[in-house]
Amino acid sequence: MPGSVVVRRAHPGVWVVRFAGPRPLMRAVPEQYGSTMHLAGRSEWTSGGERWSSGPGSISLKVPGEVAVERTREGTPAFQVACFEASMIEEAQAALDRPRIRAWRHSIDPRDPRAKPLATLHRHLLDGASPSALEEASCEAVHALIDTMGAPSDSGLVRCSAHVARARALLDERFTETIDLEALAAHARLDKFRLCRAFREQVGMPPHAYVTHRRIARAQALLARGMPQAEVAASVGFYDQSLLHRHFKRILRLTPGAFARGAATH
User: Fold this and answer.
1) In this structure, are strands 107-108 and 59-62 parallel, antiparallel, or unpaired?
2) Other CB atoms closer than 10 Å to residue 25's CB: what's the count?
3) Which of 7-11, 74-78, 152-156 has the weakest average pLDDT?
4) What share of residues in the chain are helix, strand, coil (percent, to 5)?
5) Which residues, at least 6 apart from 53, have a Cβ–Cβ distance to it below 8 Å?
6) Domain span at residue 236?
7) What residues contact 134, with CB distance under 8 A and at least 6 apart?
8) Are residues 164 and 242 in the same domain?
9) Residues 58 and 99 in one domain
């Protein structure tokens, strides 16, 4: 039985391709930058004179024109490929002042800290994350890819504390509103690629997650006052009650209704 292939545009600038099931050993000459997460099976690969192994959770890097050949395989394979459009890579290169990307490595150890943003993007693509989460994860993944394969400039790193403070202040003031990443970066006076990474490192979570936690904290206060759940959802910026329920349960491990009943007994 032939394997399946699914191709879709996951987010502006990002495409995802999933391969699963029996198929001949693979040969690939990518047209776009990206990364592959191996979901099942084990393979041995060669590219540009380098040989590496892949298995569940491992990540390899894609560079246009670089031939990758699967030499051996054990088990039934499954892969997810995240491909970045050229415009997104070029925007990141300009923002990060990395004019060149060198095809000097084709895989990255999952334990390498630089692999974490790539792994996070793949998990978001598998889990069907929200558009805002995908946008931030995509920016961090592109930043990681360029960090791993880009020739560094001599300009040094930008100190981002003041920019993160500006972004956080705006989110604190308007967390019940929808502020897209482009607008947030413009307000912070920092490109979105640096902002995503700096915000997560300094605040402890990316901007969209910070906003969600602020909304859930406000929702707790409103529920404790007896406000109906549908009104709470609208008041804190969720477009419907089901979204309030999902995030409330994920963050607090109980439903809004259970929280409201508990608050009413005290």
Assistant:
1) antiparallel
2) 13
3) 152-156
4) 45, 25, 30
5) 42, 43, 44, 45
6) 210-264
7) 10, 11, 14, 121, 124, 125
8) no
9) yes
